[in-house]
């Protein structure tokens, strides 16, 4: 058994929904699969679906519906007429860089006298600041236009007004209770703003200002809008979907040197660029500038008109991005270690772990703390704040990432008395405060989490669009799904539940064996699968395992060949896993090393007898036997009633009924390791073995006794012989009878068969002789206790040394018979 990491929620359509999907498929000539997905995502009417699939510029909303737009347009036009010096004030993330870039192109086209300013993340922090405003005033700036920032800058804009600077704010972050006294505030999230779509990115708001000033949508800048919208994780619905789709089309044939150079260093083929390419290839490099140095380098790249200059700028950002990756990895390790220690301290003190992770460290680069927070959310699934501390002032700057159901902006608002500054939205936020407030902030944020979140919400949820089999995983189906692009927040790539897939092969790939490469079989075909970051699961998988996998279909291109590939995001095995190494004939030392690599977390080693345990305990330290796993005999384990998820069978089990009883004690059994062989001797104690633990024989770990026959024909031949020769002297009778029978039968077996006949009252001992009982009552051999015992032992051996498939079935039967068991079968490796 292998538990999934998340709660799987498979979308289902009721009969009425299926009917709507069928009608939609007919009206729009869509594949049934696409129509079903559209209905599931709320596009169940012909016009709504048509707009979703084909909507263009006609679907854009009137920019003047944005509150403050009219005043902003008038003031910018006035600045142009007067020849005023205008400054664009941006932000240092990819959305801010994109917004600054777009406004740069706009003001160039309008013929304004202008420049731009982006604060330094570390030295100045987020948003407007008095020092930057003073610099603007000293430079003669009379109009400041913010992009992707400003909605919370009450004091700063008041300072700008005092210095004679008018401020136009374009922003998309959550407005605070008190709004700044700007000349114009353009933010669709203002409570009294009638704009119908609230999900624009900062660059989307800048685009609407450009549209208002130019009198038409500047389609040639939608590539910039796509970059910022995707990078800022805005929902790809409504107007964003139109802008991003147009932007991707623009990118595929862009003449902008900056975008071409950026794509080249990211290894992206622009003619086939996707939203995922932008998210994971372009955006991180743009963000790297503001995270490690200054975001101005990214603006220079996107506004560069010279090919050579663009290539140099792109290379610089690529170098910064690699450095950013290194810093992130180191910070994640340090932060997670800090959190693990915190949890350990809580466990030792008998108190619960904090419900919200708040970690701060001196020297942590505040440019990457948001990424670090995201990675801890992925690993721990708790709202997470990561902050860098200035050791001289004690001031902390940080970023937060949330989970579903926990509104970060609302939570920080409830704690605003502890904060010097904060901003953001439900899923992500930034803040600054003094280190002395960290403890109180953690306590109060945690209390809110306990109040707001139900028990289910503490487990990550994975929404699944469709259940399918390997037969459905084809390029044709993938091409159908691509009709729903662009994919992103609010319109995720269709997530599939792949069922009835058997594991044919597995291996780890990548640096430090990070990734998992699988070959899946089912319905007579094979399918490749890749699980990025899932390499540690390799030892938990067994050949032939019946897997359920959640993920997405993609194209794998290699040597000119294109085929479907499944990208695994989560998986589970709903049955006990069997690791079958009965034919390996390995020494105890080798077995110990193998078990150590298996990374068993809650297991028990079962041995037939005490001498086996002593042989294992006397292994030298060089044997590398795993520590912390108890060694038990079968009877001891049954009496212990200890929880156990993995059973490790070393030495042939005494009997199947004892093994079955042990399995019955493990309500949450996940795996069985069969590490015994047919001899019953200590592993590696065969004649051709050079094992280091040969002394185990001297200590009673001996080979099992030979099996006794239950062959009825043999019993019949022996009885026929007895009828001819009896009476016969009992002493030495077994040897004499063996000669008379004319085939080799050992004395022990013959003695056992004679005992069976005595128990059946076919023969008896009288005056030192074996004599036939006259007129015996006819009885079946099973009336003999000795015969039944031998028969039971043979049946046990047949199970214990059956082929893997049969042993698998038997273990499955024992698991299914367990009360309240959730297991469903067995896989084998």
TrEMBL record:
Residues covered by the DDH domain: 86-229
Gene3D superfamilies assigned to the protein according to its UniProt record, in alphabetical order: 3.10.310.30, 3.90.1640.30
Kinase in keyword set: no
Domain RecJ OB: 464-570
Keyword Hydrolase: yes
GO molecular function: exonuclease activity
Domain Single-stranded-DNA-specific exonuclease RecJ C-terminal: 711-811
Family to which the UniProt record says this protein belongs: Belongs to the RecJ family.
The protein's name: Single-stranded-DNA-specific exonuclease RecJ
Organism: Paenibacillus oenotherae
Gene name per UniProt: recJ
């Amino acid at each position: 058994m292998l538990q999934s990491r998340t709660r799987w929620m498979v979308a289902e359509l009721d009969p009425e929904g299926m009917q709507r999907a069928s009608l939609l498929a007919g009206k729009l000539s869509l594949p049934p699969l696409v129509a079903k997905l559209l209905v599931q995502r709320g596009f169940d009417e012909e016009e709504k679906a048509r707009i979703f699939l084909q909507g263009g510029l006609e679907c854009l909303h009137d920019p003047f519906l944005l509150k403050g737009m009219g005043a902003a347009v008038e003031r910018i036009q006035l600045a142009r007429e007067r020849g005023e010096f205008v400054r664009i004030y941006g932000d240092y993330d990819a959305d801010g860089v994109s917004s600054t870039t777009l406004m740069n192109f706009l003001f160039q086209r309008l013929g304004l006298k202008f420049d731009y300013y982006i604060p330094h993340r570390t030295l100045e922090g987020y948003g407007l600041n008095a020092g930057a405003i003073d610099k603007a005033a000293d430079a003669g700036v009379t109009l400041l236009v913010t992009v992707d920032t400003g909605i919370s800058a009450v004091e700063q804009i008041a300072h700008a007004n005092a210095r004679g600077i008018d401020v136009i704010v374009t922003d998309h972050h959550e407005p605070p209770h008190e709004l700044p006294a700007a000349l114009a505030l353009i933010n669709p999230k203002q409570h009294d703003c009638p704009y119908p779509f609230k999900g624009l990115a900062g660059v989307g708001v800048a685009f609407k200002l450009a549209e208002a000033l130019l009198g038409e949508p500047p389609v040639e800048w939608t590539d910039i809008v796509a970059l910022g919208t995707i990078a800022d994780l805005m929902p790809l619905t409504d107007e964003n979907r139109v802008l991003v789709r147009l932007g991707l089309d623009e990118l595929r044939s862009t003449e902008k040197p900056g975008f071409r150079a950026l794509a080249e260093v990211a290894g992206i083929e622009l003619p086939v660029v996707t939203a995922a390419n932008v998210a994971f290839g372009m955006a991180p490099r743009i963000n790297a500038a503001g995270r490690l140095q200054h975001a101005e380098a990214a603006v220079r790249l996107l506004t560069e008109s010279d090919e050579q200059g663009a290539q140099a700028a792109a290379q610089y950002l690529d170098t910064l991005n690699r450095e950013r990756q290194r810093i992130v990895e180191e910070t994640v390790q340090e932060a997670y270690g800090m959190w693990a220690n915190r949890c350990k301290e809580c466990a030792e003190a008998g108190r619960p772990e904090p419900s919200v992770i708040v970690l701060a460290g001196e020297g942590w680069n505040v440019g990457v703390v948001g990424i670090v927070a995201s990675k801890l959310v992925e690993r721990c699934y708790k709202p997470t704040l990561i902050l860098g501390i200035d050791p001289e002032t004690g001031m902390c700057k940080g970023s937060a990432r949330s989970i579903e159901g926990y509104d970060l902006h609302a939570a920080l608002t409830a704690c605003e008395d502890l904060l010097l500054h904060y901003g953001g939205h439900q899923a992500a936020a930034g803040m600054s405060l003094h280190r002395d407030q960290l403890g109180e902030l953690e306590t109060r944020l945690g209390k809110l989490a306990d109040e707001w979140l139900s028990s289910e919400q503490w487990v990550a949820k994975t929404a699944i669009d469709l259940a399918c089999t390997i037969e459905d995983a084809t390029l044709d189906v993938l091409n159908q799904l691509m009709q729903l692009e662009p994919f992103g927040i609010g319109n995720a790539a269709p997530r599939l539940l792949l069922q009835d897939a058997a594991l044919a092969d597995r291996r780890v790939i990548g640096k430090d064996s990070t990734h998992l490469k699988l070959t899946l079989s089912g319905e007579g075909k094979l399918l490749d699968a890749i699980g990025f970051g899932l390499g540690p699961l390799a030892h938990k998988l067994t050949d032939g395992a019946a897997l359920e996998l959640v993920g997405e279909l993609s194209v794998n291109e290699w040597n000119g060949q294109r085929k479907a590939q499944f990208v695994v995001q989560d998986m589970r095995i709903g049955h006990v896993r069997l690791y079958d190494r009965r034919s390996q004939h390995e020494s105890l030392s080798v077995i110990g090393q193998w078990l150590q690599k298996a990374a068993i977390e809650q297991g028990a080693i079962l041995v037939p007898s005490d001498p086996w345990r002593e042989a294992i305990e006397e292994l030298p330290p060089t044997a590398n036997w795993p520590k912390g796993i108890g060694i038990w005999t079968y009877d001891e384990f049954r009496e212990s009633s200890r929880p156990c998820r993995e059973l490790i069978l070393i030495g042939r089990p005494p009997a199947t009924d004892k093994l079955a009883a042990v399995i019955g004690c493990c309500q949450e059994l996940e795996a069985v390791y069969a590490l015994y062989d047919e001899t019953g001797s200590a592993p590696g104690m065969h004649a051709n073995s050079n094992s280091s633990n040969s002394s185990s024989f001297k200590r009673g770990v001996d080979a099992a006794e030979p099996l006794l026959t239950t062959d009825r024909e043999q019993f019949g031949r022996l009885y026929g012989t007895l009828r001819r020769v009896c009476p016969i002297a009992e002493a030495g009778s077994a040897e004499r009878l063996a000669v008379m029978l004319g085939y080799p039968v050992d004395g022990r077996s013959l003695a056992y068969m004679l005992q069976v006949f005595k128990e059946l009252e076919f023969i008896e001992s009288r005056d030192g002789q074996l004599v036939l009982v006259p007129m015996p009552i006819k009885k079946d051999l099973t009336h003999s206790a000795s015969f039944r015992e031998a028969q039971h032992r043979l049946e046990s051996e047949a199970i214990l040394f059956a082929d893997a498939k049969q042993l698998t079935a038997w273990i499955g039967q024992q698991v299914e018979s367990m009360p309240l068991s959730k297991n469903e079968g067995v896989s084998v490796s």
